[in-house]
What does this fold into?
Amino acid sequence: MKKLNKSIFVFFIICSFTANAQSNKMNDFINNLMKKMTMEEKIGQLNLVTPGGTVTGAVVSKDVDDKIRKGQVGGLFGITGPDKIRRAQEIAVNNSRLHIPLLFGLDVIHGHRTIFPIPLGLSSSWDTAMIKKSARIAANEATADALNWVYSPMVDIARDPRWGRIAEGSGEDPFLGSQIAKVMVEGYQGNDLSKDTTVMACVKHFALYGAAEAGRDYNSVDMSKVKMYNEYLPPYKAAVDAGAGSIMTSFNTIDGIPATANKWLLTDLLRKQWGFKGLVVTDYTSISEMVNHGMGDDKKVAELALNAGVDMDMVSEDILKYAAQLVKEGKVSAKTIDDACRRILEAKYKLGLFDDPYRYCNDQRAKTELMSQVNLEEARKIAARSFVLLKNDNHVLPLKKSGTVALIGPLADSKRNMLGTWSVSGDPEKSITIMQGIKNVAGNDVNILYAKGANISDDTEFIKRVNVFGEEITVDKKSPEEMINEAVETANKADVVVAVLGEAADMTGESSSMTHIGLQESQENLLKALVKTGKPIVLVLMNGRPMTLTWEDAHVNGILDVWFGGTEAGNAVADVLFGNYNPSGKLTVTFPRNVGQIPIYYNHLNTGRPFHPGDSPKFKSDYLDASNDPLYSFGYGLSYTTFSYSNISLGNKTLHPNGKITASVTVTNAGTVAGKETVQLYIRDMVGSIARPVKELKGFQQITLAPGESKKVSFTISVSDLKFYNSDLKYVYEPGNFKVFIGTNNRDVKEADFKLE
Ligand code: NOJ
It folds into this structure.
C-alpha cells in the first residue's frame, strides 16, 4: 500500500513537472512572439470576423482578406472546409508580417454535418455518456472540416418556453445542466487540444441569457445574486471547471450592466473566483450594441468591454478601431491589451496552430469522416433516446407491424424541418423524414397512406418571419378546407392515425420568441377534424420548446415528443413508433398548461401561502382561472413498460457532516417489455437561512430492466449535495431536517427523511 502511494506521488510529480515544462515552453514562445508585436498587431489579434456564413446581426465583416494581411484579425468564423480555411490561413501565415495563424470557429451546436437532436432533445435522454459521444463525433467532423473552435455548449438555464433559444440548452435544472455542460466540454476538447480531432469549446452565453424578461430574445435580465449563484451560474461553472478553453459573453444586462461590460462578471467572478484561464469572446456585435443599451458611444463601449475583461470582439470591430487610441489616452492599459492578446495566442498555441497552422486541413479526413456510416448510425440511436413519450392511453403505441397507418401532417415528410435550429452545416436534403423512416422500418405488412392535412401555419406575415433561412413553411396549392377533407378521408381508411405536427425548425432558436406556444391554428383545426373521425390518434410532435398541449392531451390517444431529432430522426421516430426502441426520454423542462403560468418550473421556492389541492383556495398562492400544476412536469416521460418503485430506505437517519448516507429504492419492471428507466433523486432542505426550493435534483441513474426484473438502486448523499449559497453568498450547509425523494419523475416519488447534524 505504502509502495503504491509512493508511486502515485512520483507519478504526480512527473505529471506536474511535465505540465510546468510545457507551460514554460508556451510562455517562452509567446513572450518572444509578443516582443515582436506592435500594439496594433496585438489589437489585431483581438478581432474576430465573419465574411458571412453565419450572420446573426445587422453587420457582416468587410475587407476580411485585407485585414488578415494587415494583421488585423485573430480569428474567423462562418466558413468551413479544408479548401476555404486553408486559403484564409495561408493569407495569415504567408502574408501577414508575423505569420500568426488564425482561429477558425463555427456554431457546431448539435452535430456538425451529421446532425443530432437539438440540445433540449439531447438533454431529454439524461444519458451523459451518450451526450458526450455526440460532442465527440461533432468535434471529429468539425476538425475534419478544418475547424478548431466550436461555439458550444450553450449552458443557459431556461425556464421560459416563449424564449426561442430554450431549444439550444439543456432545460431548467442546474444539476442536470451542469452534468451536461461538463461532458460536452470533455467531448469537444478531449484531453489534448493539440490533437487534430479535438476542438476548443466555447461556453455560452455568459451569463443568465436564458432569463430574458418575458422570454423575448436579447431582453434584460434582473435577478438576485442568491438565485444566480444557486440556480443559473452552476452550469457555466461546471463547464469552466471541465477546462473549457473559451467563454462567450451574453447580450443581456446583469444588475443593469450589459454582460459584455460587466467587470464583476468577467473579472471578479469568472477569472478571480472561478480561476478561468481561457479566452473571453463577445457575442455577435455585443460591444457596439452597448451603444443602444445606453452605455456610451462606440469608443466608450470598447473601453468598457476591454476593462471588463473581454479578450476578443466578435464582429463589432470597435476594439480594432479604438483600442490604440484608448491606450494612448490611458483609458485602457497596455497590460490589458497584452493580457487579452496573450490569451488568444495561448489558445492558438494549445491548439497546435503554431506547430502546424494547417493541422486541421486534411482533405482525406474531410472525405471519410463527414457523415460517415458510423456517425449516422450513432445519430439514429441518439435521436431515439431523446424522444419523450408524453401520453400512451391503452397502449396505442407501439404500432403493430401490420394494418393501415394514416400518416398525416405538414411535418410528416418535410426534409427541411428535420434538423432544427442552429444546424448551420447540416444538409436538410440528406435528412430522413418520418415518412421515409416509417417506410424503412415498418415492413411490408404495413400499408402507409399520406396526406399533408394542413400548412404549418396559414399566417402569411408569420410565415415570412419564419422562412428567413429558407422555405420551412410551405403553403400548399390546396385550400385549408381541401387539405383537411383529404386528411379526414385518409384517416377514415386507416386503423390508426399518426399526426406529425408542431413547429417549423426556425420557430425556435435565436430571435424566435413566441407568445403563442400551442399548435398553430391551421394544425389545431386539422387535429380537431382527425379526432372527430374516432380513429386512434398518435400525435408525433416536432418542437424546440415546451408547447401548450392541454387540448391535445385531453383528446388524442398518444403523444410522442420527438423535438428536432436531426439527420436520422425519421428512422429513429419509426424505431420508436414500431417498438424497436422503447422510449426512455424524460423532460428536462416543464410543459405549462397555458402561457399565463410562465415561468413555471419544478424547483421553485415555497410561498408563505402554498396551495395544496383539496385546500380552500382563498388567500392561497394560486390562479382563479387555472391550476398551478403544469401539464407535464420536469423528469416526466413514459415507457412502453411501467416501472414500480418500492422500499425506499436510508442507511441512516442522521448524517454527520463528514459522513455519507445511502438512499435506496427498489425499481421493478412491471410490464411486459424490457425498458430503460432514469431513476431520479431529489432533496428538500426543510429549514434554511434562506427559503429553499421545494425539491432539487441531486442525482439520477439509468437502469435497464427485463420484464418482471427488479433492481435496488442506491444513491450516496453527503453534505456536498446539501450545500447552497446563503445570503452572504457563502457556499454552506446548514444542519437540520431534509427530505429525500426518489422516483420516476419529480412528482411520482417515494419519500424518506434524515437529519443533518
Ligand atoms: C449569435 C449567437 O447568440 C451565438 O450563440 C452564436 O454563437 C454567435 N451569434 C455566432 O454565430
Summary: The chain has a mean pLDDT of 97. The first strand starts at residue 47 and ends at 49. The chain has three domains: 105-366, 373-589, 643-756.
